[in-house]
Amino acid sequence: MSKLTESLFAALQQVLPQHTLSRIVGKLAESRQTWLKNTLIRAFIDVYNVDMTQAVHQRAEDFANFNDFFTRELKPDARPVCSEPSALASPADGAVSELGDVELGSVMQAKGQYYSLMSLVGGDADICGRYLGGKFATIYLSPRDYHRVHMPCDGRLVSTTYVPGELFSVNQATANQVPGLFARNERLICEFESDQGPFVMILVGAMIVAGIETVWGGQVAPVTARLQHQNFTDQAPVMLKKGEEMGRFKLGSTVILLFPKDAAEWHESLANGTPTVMGGDIGRLL
């Protein structure tokens, strides 16, 4: 897109009823009307050139509704997970939007644009403090991608924080134009503890994303539009292995990884725009 087109696209999102539009799309995506869901699925596959050869189910008729198709399961051997114990596995199919260091409490969103780590984590000073000077990676899942999110390494769930917010698109054009995009959008912050220390996975909502789910809690459906924190240290432990599914998006969005200072490094081949494949080697724990 040209800068003018990007600006117009971002401006349009400012005036659209983001949450209402997302709820409408969510209703359509959950419809079990055979003619409707089959038409939507076939049209989506054609428009976005979706590769169905690696999916367990490949025909529109095999899915209960559009969301069932969008969060489709892949064949067991479709995404081998890097086996080196210290290797970090990509949590999702997609592309690197940005990655690097958390410098002076800021995270890069796009070239020349930064947002504060404190705002990203919902104002939680404890979480923020643990990742100052650390590493971050932002991975964008396009509409055609596989939309389940998996663990980059072994981890025990420590806490989740739901942060209400707006629902801008999270594609590169919007990231280039909307300041503090990922700290403004609705998101779920999940902090884990590994044998090497803590790390965070943030699932960022977006326009027409019909929902975020986790394997331990199902659909993220807050009863109020307020920040909600849940501590898991005093509950039955949620232990997940590297490569295991931890959540999924009903329509495309973004995953942000955070690691503390001197805890991890990204693979030298990673750069803005680098495609990622779930389970692929993207770095290592130090």
3D architecture notes:
This protein has helices at 3-15, 18-30, 34-48, 66-70, 117-120, 125-131, 172-177, 181-184, and strands at residues 87-89, 94-101, 106-110, 113-116, 135-140, 148-150, 155-163, 187-194, 197-204, 211-214, 218-219, 228-231, 239-240, 245-250, 254-259, 264-266, 275-276, 281-285. The chain is globular, with a radius of gyration of 18 Å. Helix content is 23%, strand content 31%. It is built from eight helices and 18 strands. The mean pLDDT is 86. Its main location: membrane. Pfam families: PS_Dcarbxylase. Its cofactor is pyruvate. Catalyzes the formation of phosphatidylethanolamine (PtdEtn) from phosphatidylserine (PtdSer).
Briefly characterize the structure.
It contains 8 helices and 18 strands. With 286 residues, it is α+β, with helices and mostly antiparallel strands.
* Quaternary structure state of the chains depicted: single chain
- Helix fraction, binned, reads 10-25%
Beta-strand residue fraction:
25-35%
How many runs of DSSP E, i.e. beta strands? 18
The radius of gyration computed from the alpha-carbon positions, rounded to a whole number of angstroms, is 18 Å
Q: Tell me the structural class.
A: alpha+beta
Biggest beta sheet attributes: 9 strands, antiparallel
Terminal-residue CA separation:
39 Å
Number of domains: 2
* Overall form: globular
